[in-house]
Design goal:
TIM Barrel; alpha/beta; about 30% helix; Alpha-Beta Plaits; 2 domains; nine-stranded mixed sheet
């Protein structure tokens, strides 16, 4: 996705959410900015509302009171009266008028356009929390590197205010963007979803060749690169994958990995948005299993930090 410069020469980006008081997206208390758009299609995606790079309207039928306010507000004729659907996405321009008119909160506009200067000013409101806790701002998604110029401009403005930046990435980006990432991020959280190339393609829609190559390049140029593995029961938590993952990061001089337990939140969100993805059911995530994975990594010489 490309964005056009504004008249002031600043890029813009589509942001789905700004989440304050995040505790698992980097050191200290953080404010996490979720950018919209992702090149992967992970079957367990926790934030499916960030997959599309465009603003969109979500609909939660259980909140609808059937008042018809949305239909009166819509200028595009995009409101339909189905039991579990309300939006004709072929007509909808995501203006958000229906969401503003909805008294029950059934309709929500996901994704708003931001300029980096406006965003930096908004995030600076939390600077006291950052200073007190050693925290900062985290750019997540989606994939932040779909907006490289915006990311660089926003990070420069944050750094001028003394705010540190973490960038969470899936690693599927063009090598030409490497310098921007290195210049912009104080910390990089890098997902390694599966080590097998074909299995990675099956689970995410893309193979992992570019992801592993980019990780290798970053490991030699950035001091604060932190690999993470989203642990999906029955998908990537087997001994072979854990050993392969440990061997890979050790070969790059890295001895720590963060293990993120599967979160079924994304499964519940899928019916709310316009997507061809369907909810996937995975085994329950058990704490004992996460401790087993931690032990497996430790046996291979890697310190595993398990998130709760």
């Amino acid at each position: 996705m490309s964005t056009k410069p504004s008249s002031e020469g600043l890029e813009k980006a589509i942001i789905s959410n700004i989440q304050r008081f995040s505790l698992h997206d980097g050191p200290g208390i953080r404010t996490t900015v979720f950018l919209k758009g992702c090149p992967l299609r992970c079957i367990w995606c926790q934030n499916p509302e960030t997959l599309s790079a465009k603003p969109e309207i979500s609909f939660r039928h259980e909140r609808c009171i059937g008042c018809g306010s949305c239909q009166a507000a819509c200028q595009c004729g995009a409101i339909i009266r189905g039991n579990d659907r309300r939006i004709d996405y072929s007509r909808c321009n995501a203006c958000g008028d229906c969401a503003k008119a909805c008294p029950g909160g059934a309709l929500t506009l996901i994704g708003e356009e931001w300029r980096p200067d406006d965003l930096a000013a908004e995030l600076a409101m939390d600077i006291d929390f950052f200073r007190e806790s050693g925290g900062g701002v985290t750019f997540s998604g989606g994939e932040p590197l779909l907006y490289p110029a915006f990311l660089e401009q926003a990070c420069k403005l944050l750094h001028k205010r003394g705010i540190t930046v973490t960038v969470e990435t899936c690693g599927f980006f063009d090598r030409s963007l490497m310098d921007i990432l290195v210049r912009s991020a104080d910390f990089i959280y890098y997902d390694l979803k599966h080590m097998d190339r074909e299995k990675h393609r099956e689970l995410t829609g893309r193979d992992n060749l570019r992801i592993l190559d980019n990780f290798s390049a970053l490991a030699s140029t950035h001091d604060c690169l932190q690999p993470r593995i989203p642990v999906i029961p029955g998908m990537n938590d087997n001994i072979e994958n854990i050993r392969h993952c440990a061997s890979f990061i050790l070969s790059k001089g890295i001895r720590t990995i963060h293990c993120l337990p599967y979160n079924p939140l994304g499964r519940d969100k899928l019916p709310w948005i316009n997507t061809i993805q369907r909810p996937q059911v995975f085994e329950a995530q058990e704490r004992d299993k996460m401790e087993e994975l931690k032990s497996l990594f430790q046996k291979e010489g890697v310190d595993a930090i398990v998130y709760s």
